[in-house]
Structure formats: structure tokens, C-alpha cells
Amino acid sequence: VAMDEQRYLYVSDIKKHEVRRYQLGEKNGTLVAGGNGEGDGLNQLRVPRYLFVSRDHSVYVSDHKNHRITKWNKGAKKGIVVAGGQGQGNALTQLSHPQGIFVDTLSTLYVADDRNHRVMRWTQGAKEGTVVAGGNGTGAGANQFSYPVGLSFDRHGNLYAVDYGNNRVQRFSIE
A single GO CC term, please (predicted)? Predict the structure, then answer.
């Protein structure tokens, strides 16, 4: 789930492979991403997990089983691949089961790349990402993860990553 500044609630449905936006008290909601069955087309999702809603109401979706992050501009019928989308893998152009996402004010995307045990950064328009934390194999070391899932930033620019397999939250200073 995610919420925008107008208090609309965005909910990903991993069974229907879609994301809907709800107003308080609304039952059906408005389709904002996916909704065309499970698949890898630009109008489809495959197990949408985490969401991020930007100030312009674009919805970023971690398309878990398509190994990509898609951005759905307000009113769009198709998403735009903004990270991954080159099949499952560990190259800098690939993701493996992405989870938590965060987009900063410069539209830089941060992704918890779950099965690659790393957090990646994708600047707007970039064809490949950079590893900002982890990426040193699975483990419990200071710069290792065992399945990172959630991401957040504080007002000082510190990155917090939920390290699921190690039962901890790690903090990183990102330049």
C-alpha cells in the first residue's frame, strides 16, 4: 500500500496483478496499473508487490516476477520500464525479484533487489543501475543482505533497508 498527499490509498493486488487507487469509503477503486491479467506486456503486471506514488501521482510498481520496476503516469494505460526488464539476473541492467522501492525528489529510484541481496539506484533515464548497498553475496556482514525487502529514507538522507533474512534493519549513508 501507499498513500498520496490527497489521502488516496493505493493497493497492489498480487492475485489480480493490478494496482487500484481508493478514496476514503470507496469500495471498487480506480485501476491505475495492470488490470489486463498476469503477463509481461507493458499493460500487465506479474505479482505487483511494493508501490511508490510520486507528487505528480505517477505510480511506481515493483513488478516482482517480471524482474522490473514500472512507472505508470497518471491516466496511463501502459507502464514504462524504469529499472530492470532485461530478464532475471545480477547484471547492472537486471533485477531479481525486486521488492521495496523509493523515489527521491530528483526522480532517482532506489530498489531492494531481493534475490541479488543488494540495493540499487537508478537515475532518471538510466539504462543500468548502480549498487549502493550490499551486492557482496548473501550474508550477515555490514555490507551484506539476506533478502532485502523494504526501503525508506530519513530527512538526513540516510537509507534504511529491511534485511529480512537477517532479522534486522540496516542504515546506510548514501552520497
Answer: extracellular region
> pTM, whole model, 2 decimals?
0.96
- 53/158 Cα distance (integer angstroms): 20
Domains of the chain by range and CATH? 1-85 (2.40.10.500), 86-174 (2.40.10.500)
Burial class (CB in 10 A: 0-12, 13-18, 19+), 127: exposed
